[in-house]
Design a protein that fits this description.
By secondary structure, the protein is of the alpha/beta class. The chain contains nine helices and seven strands.
């Protein structure tokens, strides 16, 4: 019987996989240990996966994962900087998870013909979220669905991190307002309760920072205060849409 990877798959990768529609061939860019690739194959969400990474170490870990969970025949491994080693038409879906937003933008910008041949993509940026969402809409894509999860740190700690992610499809749509570029759309959100928790957390962080600088009248403090107040207005706007 084939071993299941489900029990060791991190929560953020499980959520990412759940957003991914069934496809013929998925390209997992920056595959790391290959867990997401293996899970997609075991769940029959992909018939084949091309696992790629810029470093040989992660590719070897992905090979080991594929062998351990019995999916080696359905996976191909390529040493590749972004999409460099993928030709247009080789895959119909690509995944950029667990990397910085600027890198995601660069990967897509560097290979427009390859990305244009895809039917969709799953993006899970770790930074520059607003810039990634804006880039998606500026380049003829749109966000079809979103999700956000909170994954606790190991060792029994109660701290952790929020991971936003979104499924994008080709097709131009109107650019969302600024607050949705930063925090996402509740209308497209699978886990609206988690997003509300995230927004309240972000609000608390900014309110605390605002309290610390209210007594200062330096130019730098005033600029910081203006920025924090603008960010709080954006958070309020998104929360009000969920009321």
């Amino acid at each position: 019987m084939q071993k299941s990877i489900d029990t060791i798959l991190p929560k953020r990768l499980k959520a990412a996989a759940d957003l991914i529609p069934c496809c013929n061939t998925a390209c997992d860019i920056g595959c790391d240990h290959g867990y997401l690739s293996v899970y997609l194959l075991q769940q029959r969400k992909a018939g084949r996966v091309i696992a790629m990474d810029v470093n040989s170490g992660p590719l070897e870990r992905a090979r080991s994962s594929a062998a351990l969970f019995g999916v080696t025949s359905q996976m191909e491994f390529r040493l590749s900087d972004g999409l460099t080693q993928l030709s247009p038409g080789e895959a119909d879906f690509f995944i950029c998870a667990g990397m910085g937003g600027k890198l995601i933008i660069k990967i897509m910008s560097d290979h427009p013909l390859t990305t244009a041949s895809m039917k969709g993509a799953l993006l899970q940026p770790q930074s520059d979220i607003r810039a990634v969402r804006r880039f998606v809409y500026e380049t003829g894509w749109h966000i079809e669905q979103e999700d956000i999860v909170f994954e606790e740190d190991g060792g029994g700690k109660k701290t952790g991190k929020y991971y936003p992610m979104f499924l994008i499809r080709p097709g131009k749509e109107t650019m969302p307002p600024g607050e949705e570029l930063q925090y996402g759309s509740l209308a497209k959100q699978k886990s609206s309760g988690v997003l509300q928790d995230f927004l309240r957390y972000q609000m608390g962080v900014r309110q605390k920072a605002l309290e610390q600088i209210l007594s200062s009248d330096t130019m730098r403090a005033l600029e910081r205060r203006y920025k924090l107040e603008e960010e709080l207005r954006e958070i309020h706007t998104v929360l009000e849409k969920s009321a």
